[in-house]
Structure formats: structure tokens, C-alpha cells
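Page 47, continued from p. 46.
Same chain as before, 127 aa.
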Amino acid sequence: QVQLIESGGGLVQAGGSLRLSCAASGRTFSMYAMGWFRQAPGKERDFVAYINWSGGTSHYADSVKGRFTISRDNAKNTVYLQMNSLKPEDTAVYYCARKRNIYSSSDYSQEIQYDYWGQGTQVTVSS
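Result:
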């Protein structure tokens, strides 16, 4: 069983920065791609960012490109989301997730492609 625990959320003013962390249990973390998603109140959960097993490939939602950076430290079983130039519309619960298929990087923005999820961490950006 894999556990994912997010941390680093909080309240920040527009234009500020936060760094989210997602710590994973288990010995196979480095084999799997990881993703970040977010869910705003009253809305569906949306893709934010993806990183492959080595950290050499990443993808972002258009809404966060140039502002957010996903990274990972396989020695620490941790994936990060650095969020800069935050906007009120970034307010959401942020979730990390493990992509289920280690052999394919396709469909990385689809929730169904992820098998384990964290409990989420709240990010609130005030205007």
C-alpha cells in the first residue's frame, strides 16, 4: 500500500509563492511518474503538473505554465510543486498522485491514469 502525504499549503497574498511537498511511502517511488491536481470549491479536479520517473520530463496545465515548477527527489521519495506569482484563481485543494502505468507517459492529465492519491493540502490566495 502506498501513502502520499502532501504538505506546504497555506494562505498567501496574490503574487506570493508556496512550495508544496508530497512524501511517498514504499520502495518503488522512483519507478513511477507523479502528478499534481487541484480542486477549487464547486469545481471538478483539474490537472496541474506531471513529472516522469527520473524528473527529466514535465508537463503543465496552460494556466500554470511559467509560474509553477514540478520537481522530485527520488532519494527522499518526495515530489514538489513550486508555485510562484500566485493568483486568487489558484485557490484550491492540491493533490499529488502516482501514475499507475510505469511504461507509458500518455494521458498524464487524466485522473483515471493515477492510482494513489494524497489527502490534499489547501492553498488559499488572497487578492
